Structure formats: C-alpha cells, structure tokens
Amino acid sequence: MYSIFFIYAVFAALAGRALAFNIPFGGVNISTSDLLTIQESPVTLACTADCGLAQTKILACNDATPCLCTNDTVSSFARCQTCMLDFLIQQNIPAPDTRAGSNVLVGGYAAGCAAANITVPKEFAALTLPAFWEGPFVAVLPEAGGIAVAVLGALLGGSAIVLLSNM
Predict the structure, then answer these.
(1) DSSP collapsed to 3 states, 134-155
(2) Among 18, 38, 51, 123, fewest CB within 10 Å belongs to which?
(3) pLDDT tens figures, 24-41
(4) Residue of 68, 58, 55 whose CA lies nearest to 19
(5) Residue 17 CB partners (closer than 8 Å, separation 6+)
(6) How open is the CA angle 114-39-105, to the nearest 5 degrees?
(7) Are residues 39 and 54 in the same domain?
C-alpha cells in the first residue's frame, strides 16, 4: 500500500516539475519565481513600479501557464524588461544581471507560452530599442584631424622617397 502511494507521489512531483512553466535562458531553465529576482541596483530602482507590478502578476499566477501567458501578464513583463533596457542604454552602463533588460529572456518567455500552444503578440515577444538611441558611437578623427594626418603622412612619405632616391 505504501509503496504504491510513494511511487504515485514521486511521479506526481516529477510530473509537476516537467509541466511547470520554465523559461529557457542561457542553457538553463529559469522558473517564474526567479524571473525578475534581480539584485538591487540602479536599474531595479529605476524600474520598481513596472517590475514590481510584473513580479506580482507573475507570482499570482502560481506557475499556471494560461495565466502566465495572458496579454496582461506578458505585457507587464515586457514593459518591465523594456524599462530596464531603456535605463541601461540611457545611462550607458552594463546590466547588473543577465536577466535585466534581456531580449533573450523575453523571447524565452514567449517560447514558453508557444510551447503551451498560446501565441504571444509580437510586440511582447521581443524588446525594441528606445527612440533616443542613436546607435553605437565609433570614435573617429574629426574631418580636420583626418586632413592634417593625411597631409603630414604625405609630407613624411614624400620626404622619405626624396631622401632615399638621392643616396
């Protein structure tokens, strides 16, 4: 009697973990309770309102996939990640945690919903760059500096040719 109950209990526990909503991220699966558990940093302080609401909605779902994949919950999660990404870009600082402002995590969340045959709207399936972002800046010589370097190089090169041809 006890052995049948024990086998059933183990099977139920393992099945519960297999059916839990896990988000693939960097070769591991992140559970919903760890999704927005990011150490306190300037980015988490700047996005406390958005991320606190998202965390509350996600934890209230208690790993129920239909609840986690509703537009309300997914949009809150995407808004939190967008807030963190915008803050990191605006401040030009590295993320304190790989989950902060992560497009991969947002895509993994959408993939978790897709695995349960629930389609996430595409505006919540990926992050977009903020309007104020002008792209990566490459520090190059200003135009006047480039001209000065070219003239100096031409003078030195020409002088070297004249010097070597008169030897």
Answers:
(1) CCCCCCCCCHHHHHHHHHHHHH
(2) 18
(3) 788 888 888 888 888 899
(4) 68
(5) none
(6) 15
(7) yes
Q: What stretches of the chain show up as alpha helix (H) in DSSP?
A: 2-18, 42-46, 48-60, 65-68, 71-91, 103-115, 122-125, 143-165
Q: Which two tokens stand for residue 54?
A: 């998202």
Same domain, yes or no: 79 and 12: yes
Distance from C-alpha of 100 to C-alpha of 97, rounded to nearest angstrom: 5
63 DSSP 8-state letter:
T
The whole-angstrom distance between residue 40's C-alpha and the CA centroid of its chain comes to 17
Same domain, 161 and 95: no
pTM, entire model = 0.70
What six digits make up the tokens of 61?
Answer: 């779902």
| Alpha-carbon distances of 118 from 9, 67, 88, 141, 158, rounded to whole Å | 29, 11, 31, 51, 70
The strand pairing partners of 25, in sequence order, are 28
Tell me the residue length of the chain.
167
